[in-house]
TrEMBL record:
One of its GO terms (molecular function) is DNA binding. Residues 231-240 have a biased composition (Basic and acidic residues). CDD domains: MobM_relaxase (cd17242). Residues 231-250 are annotated as: Disordered. This is Mobilization protein.
Amino acid sequence: MGFVVLHMEKAHGSDSGTTAHIERFIIPKNADPTRTHLNRKLVAYPDGIKDRSAAIRRRLEEAGLTRKIGNNQVRAIRINVSGTHEDMERIEREGRLDEWCADNMKYFADTFGKENIVAAHLHRDEETPHIHVTLVPIVKGERKRRKREEQAKKRYRKKPTDTVRLCADDIMTRLRLKSYQDTYAEAMAKYGLQRGIDGSKARHKSTQQYYNETKKLADSLKAEVVDLQRQKETAQEELRRTKKRYRPRS
């Protein structure tokens, strides 16, 4: 039984680089261009919206926010979901990939609100099938008191419980991140996937870290292949010389 993969990280700024990667405006080195046509959009953009970045902006414009968005404020959360490579290959062979995609979209719509899932892309041109989900962190309710307000014991006027706010921190608290891992694994159990070890010291890597480390590993393996090829050629040359040296005279 394999494991689920659920990775969440905050996006900063316009996140245009990630949009280019996800939308395949630029084909990454680890992708097979002969399979890029198999990639699919799982969320249809509204009329007039051409890409993921525009979809993020549209959601922010229509959310009904009352506070101005700060320059450094997180506008979107990147979510990457998949499973153990062998299990994802099995799901493909069994013809259940569409079902897996549908169950993923249902999970994220139920968990974060369908209107906040502004983009989702299935990638099949990389080694393991996976989905990139884009979540705009719109939440409702009163914001948490600031520490200095509590210390000063200032009167704090509560906002209506339906106040619309942009707050990635509310979505990505430690307890909620743990809960997502639990509930997502439950939703994917029907595919023979289970949650990773609870409390593991393993840490998520950013997409860029993953690609950098993959490239380093690939370069290292290439160097080893070249070295082995040289050793093979040297051994073959030695064998030819030995055979020639000890060839019986007629």
